[in-house]
Every structure is written in structure tokens, then in C-alpha cells.
Amino acid sequence: MSQVNRVSGGQLDRGRTLRFTFNGKPMQGHPGDTLASALLANGQKLVGRSFKYHRPRGIFTAGPEEPNALVQLRPGAFQEPNTRATVTELWDGLHASSQNHRMSLEHDLMAVTDLLSPFLSAGFYYKTFMWPRAFWEKLYEPAIRASAGLGRLSMQEDPDAYDKGFLHCDLLVIGAGPAGLMAALTAGRSGARVILADEDFTPGGRLNAETLELGGMAGAEWARAAVAELAGMDNVRLMTRTTVHGAYDHGIYGALERCTDHLAEPGGKPRQILWRIYSRGAVLAAGSTERPIAFGNNDRPGVMLAASVRAYVNRYGVTPGRRVAVLTNNDDGWRTAADLAAKGVEVIAIIDTRDAPAVCDVPGARHVRNAAVADTTGRKGLRSVTLADGQMIPADCLAVSGGWNPNVHLTCHQGGRPQWREDLSAFVPGDALPPGMAVAGAANGAMTLAAALAEGRASATTRLEDLGITPAGTDLPRAEDEPREAAAFWHVRQGRSRAWLDLQNDVTVKDVKQANAEGFRSVELLKRYTTLGMATDQGKTSNIAALAVLAEETGNTIPETGTTVFRPPYTPVSMGALAGRARGRDFRPYRLTPSHEWAAANGATFVEVGNWLRAQWFARPGESGWRDSVDREVLMTRASVGICDVTTLGKIDVQGRDAAEFLNRVYANGFSTLAVGRVRYGLMLREDGIAYDDGTTARIGEHHFVMTTTTANAVTVFRRMEFARQCLWPNLDVHLISTTDGWAQFAVAGPNSRNLLRKIVDSDHDISNEAFPFMACAEISICGGTPARLFRISFSGELAYEIAVPARYGNAMMGVLMEAGAEFDAVPYGTEALGVMRIEKGHAAGNELNGQTTAHNLGMGRMVSRKKDCIGNILSQRPEMVRDDAVKLMGFRPVDRTQPLVAGAHFINRGETANMENDQGWMTSVAHSPSLGHSIGLGFVKSGDTRKGEIVRAVSPVHGTEVEVEIVSAHFIDPEGKRLRA
Amino acid sequence: MPDQALTPAPPLAGHDRSFGSIRVAAPENLAIVSLALPLGEEDAAERAIETGFGADLPGIGKSLTCEAGRTRLLRLGIDSAFVLFEHPAPDALGIVAAKLGDAAYLTDQTDVWCALGVSGPDCRAALERICPVDLHDDAFAVGDAARTVMEHLGVIVIRTGKDAFLLLSASSSARSFLHAVETSAANVT
């Protein structure tokens, strides 16, 4: 199809032709076109079907406020629905398709819904599809779902990459129209760090769409020169295709930069970047958006906003129609008529709602005063307009101007409300702006070019002065002061046809009246009941008119009616951009233990423990499942020796003259009496007396301790201890630093653990039972001089040690330990075997320290020292916390040994109903014990310590199971601790 | 004694890659020792530092080089600092202890951290993708340092030259850290 609607001029490169398709139809355009301008050039009026009624729709605007021309772009996994053709830069090879129709765009089967419109008015879904209830899930919901929504997702993973970034500036200028360019020039010439952002691919704002003169040259030319000057300044960062979509706290703005959306291929680079801009000041020069007038059948293809029509003519060299009528309530609509006539397009009539003389002379155009349009004809493309008095005027395009709405959105993102200006019939920024923000130009209600330039300069000047930067003197270029008289006119009352307000969500004047009649009178309720303003265009061309209709209906003024709340983002932001790099494998960082490579090479299956990857078990050939591996690891460790990487547990280095006193205060039990060369188990309480972490702390010097924490709580413990150090007891000489990652630490456990270690510990260190008893620690060396630390502690209950070397040696160390252990059939073991063994031994872990339990519950009540103060001491003694019948940590075994136990089961006495009142406690941890040959559990049960031997029921309503269990000691293995001390 | 001696394998050792004019390279044999100033004895500690290293402890958020450029003193907090120097063996703490005696509390931080140098005229373009701190020439002078978060990882960033930065991050997440830095460099070249 040839470009039948081209006119002369425009910012196009007509020397190059771009080929694209729309619904498979081949078309042509030029660099500088948007998809919308190219479609219009090729005579394509019909671009989509409306949301509810599937009415034929055409391009309505030339900007991001577009409600109708939503298309699907790109094939396959790159497919993106709901893309506004008006802001899509044309590229060679672009393929676009229309949305929201069954069968073709021209013949949409779903258009029948338009006939059902009386049943589909506001809130219809609250009144329909109710009965019979059974039909909802199987029939109504799938049917609605199939017909709902606009575009279609590809349902494949987004193949594009996205990125994020952080920028800093003295002044952020939002919008590169005349006001923004003046602000940026003023600030840039002053040497300030400036960021100038504009959503368009060509900066200049309305200067690109108008024939206004500026500084003796065409507005667009002046804009180009300003941009060139700014681009040459090192202190100015010009960001095009970048929408500043949100004003957040502390001067931080969110901005979305579209890097490759205008290219056929992303070329391996991120498609979009989500920027956080930290500004010391900002000028919002976001311009204003034109609004229409509502009248009967005002939604036909060919009915467009008037300033958009002239943008197509002036900037894109295309006319949307060959015989254009203008409907306006203000002087600016006349400008469109004049610009069209200047390009040789027939302007058949200018229909002005005001009873006033012509604003300018437009050859050939009939001026109809004090009139309005009440209806139109032409279902798939405008054919004529009908005036309120019945006259019909043939036209294939109607340019409508109902006035302008300043784009105040960002001024309201922190709770500010706009204020009404009667002279503009529009909302302008209110008094409470985000700190550091000034508003300039049309966004501020300064609607002429001269005013925009002046405000741009003034706002930048005051921002700079606030920052202590001397503004450079900047002359204002001479500019036209265009006629801007207007008289409010929101909708045409004559006529019975439906008049559209929200084109995208198909909401009409009738819907607003109906909502009010049904009692949804507040503007917030109106919005949600009718869905006006809730589509992807967020009501940019409909909000104010709807307020006006509601105000009329309720008898209030528009400012009394108020607005809904503007929230970020100003225009849609893709989920991919919000995710940035956080997807798939890179969703969060991962932490590897020093022996990770060894484990991966030796059959480890890994499990995520927070950000860590830990070996869960090491499968051997011939094993049929994880139970085989885990059982083997437990049995071999208890029979001979096993090795486990325990690096992940937090290690906190504590030094200072008052280190011991500090530990006394953060631990429930005492540490000042701990001798050098000894380790002690410690329990930490929260301020409210609840146990929250445990570990072991070793004293390796008079003023030097090394604390371990659980893996999960390493950061929490450090944070709380640092708070105590800095804020609670700043008079203590104590210093903390994490060394978790710096030491590779291995548990070596089992009867042969000492024999194994003797082979690698340098001979000058005596690790016999006498010289190095249970709970000893020392700094030693191994393998001929490598520094190491040795701790004789046991989580498994066996004779055991933990040995630590600088992390760089961790991977080699695992190999050395296994080699030294080969003669003892040493096995590596993972977190599962680690867990089984500690349950067999009765050691508390995370399941038992769940934030609800106390030292008393854990059977460690006596550990809470009465001789010294500690965090949680006082509140742990509250009467309810120390009841005699409080739950106590006990062991459980099934009466029928073949039955497996279930964690989370609750204990109910025999003969009682399983309900909350009879709840005796709950099972915290279970495991199959290979040592005992049956399932075992740990749990809390009321007065457990006095009920050994009693049988209760472990009931799990979630699993639907119930097992009789005997209450036993939690220490299933070696209760006297003989193995520990061997 | 086992036949196999312990081979050291710091996670980013030997890494050196360029992206256009941006170089991402792990410094060789970087040793790090933390020092904490005892409460009430800060003056004595600072004098010991001056004697031992020939330089004053810098202000918070600043660093300086001494010992003919071989050593960097990095001040992190009121009572805490790092000493960074080139040293291959795992006895870095002993070297600092020999200079300072008991005047400060020391820990060996060498293996707690991994490090990457990011340098080149366009290095800031890469770093601004992940670094919230303002690294502009006017805002972050040579020697300045800050603790920050990059891609969910704690990082200490130090400006070491006109267009050069040293980044320290936890060694256990070295692979994620390297990936974050290199993706940034690749995305801007």
C-alpha cells in the first residue's frame, strides 16, 4: 500500500524507506515515523477493537496518552501486547498486529457484545453471573477469562535482558520541551550536574509538533540547537527514550530508559534500564495533555485530539484525513485548522462551542459558532458529524479540543493533591510538592510558549540558588504568545447515542451517571465501580471529563469532587525492567562453601540454605535414593569417622578488655569463667526471654573469643550484638567482626576422628584425650605449618572435632582429610546426616528455637544464670514462662516401631478429643534413625520431663495421620555422653 | 603426614579480563588485616600506627597509601580500620602484629574477602549499573571509600586512582560478585 496520506514537511528521512506489516499487510514508512504515523500515512484507520464492546477504533492521539491504538509487537517469545503505536518508533521489519478481536480486525465476531451493551454497563459483573453458583467455576469464569483482557502474552520466558542503575545529579529536569530545555540550559551553563530526561526519541516536546517560532527560527530547530549545546557539556547527561515515572522519597526518581525497543534486534544488550536518580533538585517540565469533549458516538476511527492531528501534520508529514472538521471549546483548536490548511488539507468546518468571533482566518473553513457535535456516522471510519441542531457535515476526520490538563502526576506521588484553576478549567500542582521539586511550563498551568521558557529558566535558577550554585545568566529567546482563551465544555447533552469518556475501558457518560444514581458518588468509588481511569492509559484523556460529569450529577463543583490519587508509574513499566538481573540463577547471590568444588566432584547433591549451597548428601553408585545415602553416612560416621563442611555457621571474632563481660551479657549462661583454651555452649535470649540462637564460643586468648552461631541467624546475631556494643554498652571495650567466610571449617566426627586428625596435625600439638579433652580449643598448625584452629566439640554426639583453616585451603583440606581418613573408611556427610545425628543426640536446632520457646522449654532453665544480668533475663522469669506444666523438650518414639513420625503433629492425651483445648504440645523434628532402626522425634509436650514412659497420640490433621508415641529422653544415643569424652 | 600439601585456591585468583577499555582484574596476593582501636587507648593505637606504617590513620571513609605505595590504610569506622598490602603467605596478621604489638586488636581478613579492581576511562559507566554511591570525580576523591550494597552483596568500594576502583566483597559469594561486575562491564561495551 502506498503512503496515500503524506503531506509535505515533517521530521522524516524520506530518503530511506522502512518496510513493516500490520496484520500481515505490507506497508511503508520512513525513519522518524512512529508506527501510528506510518499507519495513518498508509491510510490505515482501523487499528483495534475496544475492550468491552469490541467497537472499531482508530488512532486517537500522537502520544503516550493513547487509549485505542494498542498493538502486539514482535514474534515468538519477544511478543509484547498493549504497545501504544503512537510512541513506537518505526523500524525496518516491524510486524504489528491488532488486539482484542475474534477472527479479523475488520470482522470481529465479538462485536455482538456491542448489541448487549445495555446489560454490560457499569458494575455489570456485580449483578450478573451469580446464578446458578455451580456455573461460576466451570462455565462463567472460563468464558469471561477467554474474552477478557486486551493483548495476549507469549507465555514463554522473556528472552530480553534488563538492567538497573544509579545516577546522581544536582538537577533533574523532567521533560525536554521548551520549559525543560530552558531549565537544562540554565543549569548546564552554570556548571551544575544536570540530567535531562525525555520520553520521546527526539527531544523538544511540543516544539516538534508546532509551527511556533522561537528565537527567530522554527521551534523544532531551536530545540535541536539547544540539545546540541547540552550534548556538548560534560556536566549534562541527556537521556532520551527515558520516562521519569515516579517521584520517590528523598529526591529519588525512578526512570525507565528504553534502549532497544526501537531496534529490530537488541544485539545482546539490555532492552531497558530502570534507573534510580538521586537528585538534589528537580524541575518537572512534563507539559500538558489535551482532553476531548464527549458526545454521541465520539469513539469512531477518525475522531482524534486536535493537537495530535496537527502533530501528525507538522512533525510526521501525514494527514489523518482529507476532509477535516474541528470541534473546540478554546482558541488552541483553531491552530490545528490553520496548520492543516497551510498544508493544503481541506478544513470543512470549525465548530466552536463558544459564541465568539473567529480566532484566525482559515481559508475554506466554515465557522459554526455556539455549536457542538451530537453524533457521528461511519462505523469503521468517520463519514460525517451531526451537529446538535441536526445539521450533518461530511468529514473523515474530526479534530476535537476540549482544553488541556497539566501533567501534574509526579507532584502527587508523595501524597500531594492538585488544585483547581477555574480560568484553565484544569488542575495544576498543589502547594505540597515533593521536597526539592519545582514545576515549570504547561505542567504548572503556564500554557503559552513564552511563559514556559520563562518558568523553565526561573525554576532552574531558584533550584540552583538553593544548592548554593551561582546561575549563569541566560537570555530568553523571543517567542510567540499564542492565543489560549478557553471556556469549559465537557460533554454534549443533546443526542441519545452513547458518549465515551474512557475509550480504553469503554466507559461512557451514561455509566458515570448510573454509578452516581446507584450511590457510588465519591470519585474513588466512581473509578472502581465503572473502571474509568483504570486501564493502561490510567485515564489520561478521560479522568477530568468524568469528574466534570460526576460534579454535574451531584451538584458539586469539580474541585469539591476532587481527584483520585496519582501513583507511580506514570506510564507502564515492564515486569522485566522491575526484575532487572534478578531472575533465574541470578535471582539472589549464592554463597559456596570452600570445599564446594570437591563436593561437586564427589557426588554431592546440594540444597539451598538461605543463600548458601550446602551438600545435602553424597550418593554412591548403587544407592537407590537419598535414604540409602543418608543412612550410610550416619552409620559410617558413628562406626568410624565422617567429615562435614560446617563453614556456613556464623563465626564472630570478639576481642577487647571487656569481651568476657560482653559475652556474659549477651548469653544466658556465664562466659567470664571460661578458661583460655576452652569452648562453651551458649544460649542467647531475646529481650523478651525467648531463646533465639545457640552456638559455641571458644576462648583463644585472655581478651579474644571466637563465637559460632547457627547458619540462619549469623547476620541477626551479629546485628544484635553490634547494636548492644554501640548503643547499650558503649563504655565496654569490645570489638566484633565477622570471620564466617574467612575460615573453612570441618566437623570430623566418629570413634576414629582423633586417629584421623593425628595424621595431619603437626607433631608439636598434643591432641590426646588428656592434653585436649572434650570442649578444648587451640590454635595449631597442620600439614607442615599451615595455621589452623581446632575445637573439640560435637553436634553428633560422637567423639568429634571441628578443624578450621584459612578458607583458601578449604577445598584442598577436604581432600587431605578424606585421604588421611581413607584407612578408616571415612565418609563425607551432608546436612541430612548432620540433622539425623543431632536429632538422635537430642540437640536443639532451628525447629526447636522457633521464636516461641524459652530456655525453660528447652530444658535449659538452669543455664540462665542468676548471678549475672543478661539480655532476656528479667522477662524470661515472667510467671507464664516458668510454669511447672510448661512444655518441655522430649524425645518421642512410635509405639509401633514400623510407623513413621510426622513433624508438626500435635500431642493429644489418649481418650481426649483432638482439639485446641486438649493440645499438649507439638513435634518439632523427626528422622529415621538408622542407628535405632525406626523413626524418632523431638518435640515439646506439657510437663514432659515428668511424663517419661507415658504414651500419647501424635495427631496431624494436615496429613490426616495419627500415631501413638512414647515420651522418652531426647538423648537417644549415648545419653551419658561417654563417646564425647573418649 | 599426607603426601598432599594444602594448595591455596582463593576464589578469584588470577582473574583478569577486559571489556573494551574497562579492565576487571583481581589483585594478586592481597592481604587484609582488620584492626580495632581499644576504647580509651585510641591515641596510643594511632601513635603505634604512625610509627609502624609511617602514616597517620586516615579519617572515616578515607584511605591512604604508605610504605612506598605498598600498603593501604583504610578507615572504616570510629574504631575500625583495614590494612591492605601485598603478601602471599597466610601469616599476614603476624606482619601487622609485629608493627603494632598489642596496641590494636587484629584479625586476619584476607580470606573473608575477595577483591576486584575495576579500571579504565569508562569504568564508572559500568559501576553506575550496580553501585548506589556517587563515584563522580567531584563526589568521590582518590582514596575515598564507602560500604555499600551491589546486587544484594555487601561491597566496600575504594577509589584507588583517577579511573580506578578496588571493590571488596565476601569471598563465599565471589562468583556472584564477579558475575555482577562483569555483567555491568559487558552491558556498557
Q: Residue-averaged pLDDT of chain A, rounded?
A: 95
Mean of residue pLDDT of chain B? 96
Report the end-to-end length of chain A measured between terminal Cα atoms. 93 Å
Radius of gyration of chain A: 38 Å
Shape of chain A: elongated
The shape of chain B is globular
Taking the alpha carbons of the first and last residues of chain B, their distance comes to: 51 Å
Instruction: Describe the main β-sheet of chain A briefly.
Output: 6 strands, mixed
Tally of individual helices of chain A: 21
Protein structure class of chain B:
alpha+beta
Widest sheet: strand ordering of chain B: 1-2-8-11-10-9
Strand elements of chain B, count:
11
Helix content of chain B: 10-25%
Find the structural class of chain A using helix and strand composition. Answer: alpha+beta
Number of helices of chain B: 4
Question: Helix content range of the residues of chain A, please?
Answer: 10-25%
Radius of gyration of chain B: 17 Å
Largest inter-chain contact set: A-B, 61 and 53 residues
Lateral strand order in the biggest sheet of chain A: 43-44-45-42-36-46
State the oligomer.
heterodimer
Poorly predicted parts of chain A? none
Short note summarizing the structure:
The complex is a heterodimer of chains A (982) and B (189). Chain A is α+β, with helices and mostly antiparallel strands and 982 residues long.
List the main descriptive attributes of the protein structure presented here.
heterodimer, A: 982 residues, alpha+beta, six-stranded mixed beta sheet, six-stranded antiparallel beta sheet, 21 helices, B: 189 residues, five-stranded antiparallel beta sheet, 4 helices
What features would you describe in this structure?
The complex is a heterodimer of chains A (982) and B (189). With 982 residues, chain A is α+β, with helices and mostly antiparallel strands. Chain A has 21 helices and 52 strands. A 6-stranded mixed sheet of chain A has the order 43-44-45-42-36-46. A 6-stranded antiparallel sheet of chain A has the order 48-51-52-47-50-49. In chain A, strands 2-1-7-5-6 form a 5-stranded mixed sheet, with helices on one face. In chain A, helix 4 (178-189) runs parallel beside helix 8, helix 6 runs parallel beside helix 7 and helix 9 packs across helix 11 (543-554). The longest helix of chain A is centred in the middle third of the chain and has 18 residues, at 449-466. The radius of gyration of chain A is 38 Å and the shape is elongated. Chain B contains 4 helices and 11 strands; from the N terminus they run βββαβββαββαβββα. Chain B has helices at 42-53, 92-100, 123-127, 174-187, and strands at residues 16-19, 22-25, 30-36, 63-66, 71-77, 80-86, 105-108, 113-119, 145-150, 153-161, 164-170. At the A-B interface, strand 8, strand 16, strand 33, strand 41 and helix 19 of A face strand 7 and helix 4 of B.
